[in-house]
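Notes from the 1:1 (GR / supervisor)

We went over the backlog. Supervisor wanted to see one worked example end to end before approving the batch request, so GR pasted a single chain during the call. The sequence is below; no edits were made to it. Supervisor asked that the structure be written out right there so they could see what the output format looks like.
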Amino acid sequence: MGRTEQNPVAMDLHLPRYADLPRLGLYLEQAVEYVNGCLVALGDVRLTSAMASSYVKHHLLGHPQKRQYGRDHLARLIFIAAAKNVLPLASLRVAVEIQQGSRDSFASAYDSFCTELENATRLATGQQGSGEVVDAETDQQQMLHNLALAIAYRSVVDRYFHAISADL
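Structure output shown during the call:
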């Protein structure tokens, strides 16, 4: 059961920044595939088409334009897909609103969350941090920092137990 030769929870998470998200709209299946590809390093964090449609229905996500999901949709789906594993739906709704308004622009808020989550995964896996720090100047920004830590630690714990279950 001891894995000394490799770290079973090591992950290399790098999320696309807002400017790097696809410029052209993606259809639902393409958007789901894109988001899941972005979050694959987090392990069991997955999004389905049914989930994405439900988030639109529950007003966590805006309606797609001409059935296509743009940058704002993708950024919000990445946030929701990561946060849904640690938050109940009611808290997720509040977290989406807080995240959206946490910085001067939606793009800046999304980019800050990406940095927070990448730093949190490095911290949770004992890796060296990136050196990039996001200042938490408000209670809401501190909550997003803590949410990123919760996502990272949950992912690390899930990965650890998945890795050792193969050895049992």
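Supervisor's comment: Residues 28 and 104 are 29 Å apart (CA to CA).
Batch request approved.
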